[in-house]
Amino acid sequence: MNFAFTDEQIELRDGVRAYLEGTHGAEVLRRLDTEGGRDPVIWRGLVEMGLTALIVPEAQGGLGLGLIEAALVAVELGRADVSEPVADSALVAPRLIADEAQLAAIAAGELKVALAHPVNPWVADADQAGLVLGGSATGERLESADPLRRLFAVARAEADARMLDHAALIAAAQLVGAGERMLTLATDYAKDREQFGQAIGGFQAIKHHLASVAVALEFARPALWRAAYALENGHERAGVHVSHAKLAATDAAVQAAETAIQVHGAMGYTYEVDLHYWMKRAWALAGAWGDRAFHLRRLDDAVIGGAMAIGPDQSFETGMTHG
Amino acid sequence: MDLTYTPEQQAFRAEVRAWMEAHVPKEPLLTLEGRAGFDAHVEWERTLAGGNWGMVTWPEAYGGRGLDLIRWLIFEEEYYRAGAPLRANQNGIFLLGPTVMEFGTDEQKARFLTPMAKGEIMWAQAWSEPNAGSDMAAIRSRAVRDGDDYVISGQKTWSSRAAFADWCFGLFRTDPESRRHKGLSFILVPLDAPGVTIRPIRQLHGETGFAEIFFDEVRVPAANRIAGEGEGWNVAMATAGFERGLMLRSPARFQAAAKRLVDLYRAHQRDAAPSAREAVIKAWAEAEAYALNTYKVASTVMAGGKIGAEASLNKIFWSELDRALHRTAMSLLGAAAELKEVGGRVNQWLEGYIFSLSGPIYAGSNEIQRNIIAERLLGLPRLGAG
């Protein structure tokens, strides 16, 4: 039993974070906003970083890493508001595909995969996808509140429970990253903005709002890691753990967004301050891959419905009989 | 990351479970906050000590088993799973104990830790004063050096368990010229020493779970001081860290309460408000999140890491989840919630709800915790620096 990351995992996270901080700042988001949202140069950079190869087996040219690593990277994608379809294509799809040639093409960054599922009324990035898993999209573009999302109407979608769990996990991770970024943006603004002769971050009203966001994020994260671990290891309760993670991440990110706009004051209500990119991504991911109601129902069935043993000895698979 | 138990950890769990099943009282004890209940809880401490379960993480030399923090969490899980009583000596084993372990001399460890683990000496806290609550650095009670002794005068308040305990630990001003955080020392005082007067305070539930302590020229040996003279603030902050951080409120307690809440919901489902259903699920999810985070913190500490201001995140989370959990239970009980007994048994939910209201206040109010998070974790300007 050890609830800590390995040195390699921390290195991976820090490497991806540093790369995205260097290449994918807010000025890139503003440029993409006016240029249609996608940029092959950014995609190529992510491929060269190894992100498309991350969880593809080594035999197909991948790095053969697991879902803890995938979730660690997805947090960073959320923190940087990366909009290229790397999350769906490279952190979800490889676990749903058996075809070796397709896996190799994903790892090489040559194949982009989109995901269709009846829980979503859209298919993201269907236009550039060489493969749509779970169904198909029409060519009709749907406008998202998030200017960097590219959504298309669904033609056909089948319910694939594995897809849902994997995609909900990665969405939860991105929500945590977006929430962390919004907390940072609001904190930085509060340190800088002066009123009544001092930085507004010195006022307890501001401090307490931001501290509450820090609490919510702190306790969403461990739910995410347990879900990633359980899904990776095929635990019976993995779906319930994913729902817990998605719910906690959604609530924390939405709280971060609403707090961040409040701390920014009227500036937060403008298109000029970058905060809105993360806020709109949080709204989008909050509803994607099972909204609050969906995941709450799954927890309800498990906890109140009695489908799962609960109690102090039930956080992890113990292998003991339940009394 | 490896979220599975080893066979040795499983075997340990089975050992704890078997012992608890054989020894935990079948009926809940009277409340820890009253005299009779406290005595019953002390009796339980001695039963625990008889099984060598007093404080499993302490070295064997001091009455422990020398186990790591993962085993401590397993112990706690089985403890609350079995419905075992609250720990009468929580001030001692969870707060003073780790403090003495970190800052005490070998002589002090032998003198204080062993009787603590054996349930022989019960401890009270003596931090707050009438004019030093959230602002603890405003402490005025003084300890004047006189040869090998200190002579203590002053007043402490909100001293948990002082009405029933044997000793107290607290902060006293040893340098009369000092101000604020400087010049304070961490001193242990027997509550039966001449000059000590205890005035119990009735708490919200009517019992005397805490008290005022008056010190009128109370003489204690300087050997009762933990760490150096004037270093008390840093020692106290470490103690507060233990309180807020890892040990005082083990997650198993909330997981057990959440499980009982689910049972309560099932029994009252037909009459429950629709919003109660989500509140029940949320209580379970938050208790789980707290448990997971505690495993994370334990893993970090075992790898040589320290608990810093993150302890404040923890304290806010468990205290607010506990209050929400019990509020939900009260709403499920409806008109019966006010009754002190339900079905011939003490209304544990009412007692629990009342106790949960103290959580966001003690161990540093949650407003103070939010200041700490904002200033030390987020780097916002310090209070009063503007």
What can you see in these coordinates?
The complex is a heterodimer of chains A (323) and B (386). Chain A is mainly alpha-helical and 323 residues long. Chain A has 11 helices and 7 strands. Chain A has a domain at 162-303: Butyryl-CoA Dehydrogenase, subunit A, domain 3 (Up-down Bundle). Chain A has helices spanning 7-23, 26-35, 40-48, 67-80, 86-92, 100-107, 161-192, 204-232, 238-264, 275-287, 292-303; strands at 113-115, 123-124, 131-133, 135-142, 151-157, 194-195, 198-199. In chain A, a hairpin with a 2-residue loop joins strand 6 (194-195) and strand 7. The longest helix of chain A is centred in the middle third of the chain and has 32 residues, at 161-192. The mean pLDDT of chain A is 96. Chain B is α+β, with helices and mostly antiparallel strands. Chain B folds into 3 domains: 7-88, no CATH class; 123-231, Butyryl-CoA Dehydrogenase, subunit A, domain 2; 245-377, Butyryl-CoA Dehydrogenase, subunit A, domain 3 (Up-down Bundle), CATH 1.20.140. Chain B is 46% helix and 15% strand. In chain B, the strands form 3 sheets. In chain B, strands 1-4-5-8 form a 4-stranded mixed sheet. Chain B has a 4-stranded antiparallel sheet with strand order 2-3-7-6, with no helix packed on it. In chain B, strand 6 (196-201) and strand 7 (210-221) form a beta hairpin. In chain B, helix 1 (7-23) packs parallel to helix 3.
List keywords for this structure.
heterodimer, A: 323 residues, mainly alpha, 55% helix, B: 386 residues, Butyryl-CoA Dehydrogenase, subunit A, domain 2, Butyryl-CoA Dehydrogenase, subunit A, domain 3, 3 domains, four-stranded mixed beta sheet, four-stranded antiparallel beta sheet, 46% helix, globular
